[in-house]
Amino acid sequence: MLAAAGLLLSGCGSPTGPPDGQAEPSSPSDAEQHPRTELTVERAVSDPDAPAGLDGFSPGVWTLTCEPAGGDHPDPEAACAALAEAGVDVFAPVPEDQPCTLVYGGPETATVTGHVAGTPVDAEFSRENGCEIDRWERVGPLLHP
Hints:
By secondary structure, this protein is of the alpha+beta class.
């Protein structure tokens, strides 16, 4: 009986876990399998007859991923860096009671949808007043590289 218990305790056969002091091998986490940021950026001009505010701006649709940087965005590294600096709060609309300068920046608009670091985003950007121009410029490399 004592010999049988000794055999059980000695772990005959293949071990069921890693040797002492070694971490259990892990499978790639969901964050490693999928980019933490995946966005679609739709750029448009609200009034084609209005004077353009941004040189070289053209309507179109881009995709962007971060961590790793990719997609068909013209400069994904710069766009991801701008997003990291601005934070996800830049996607919140300007509060209705916030005073904004009445400065017109141009007819350029953008809609950004997807998720940033797991947070869903669905935001409209324009250049219709000082507050909106500020939001635009905070993520400028995302909207107009």
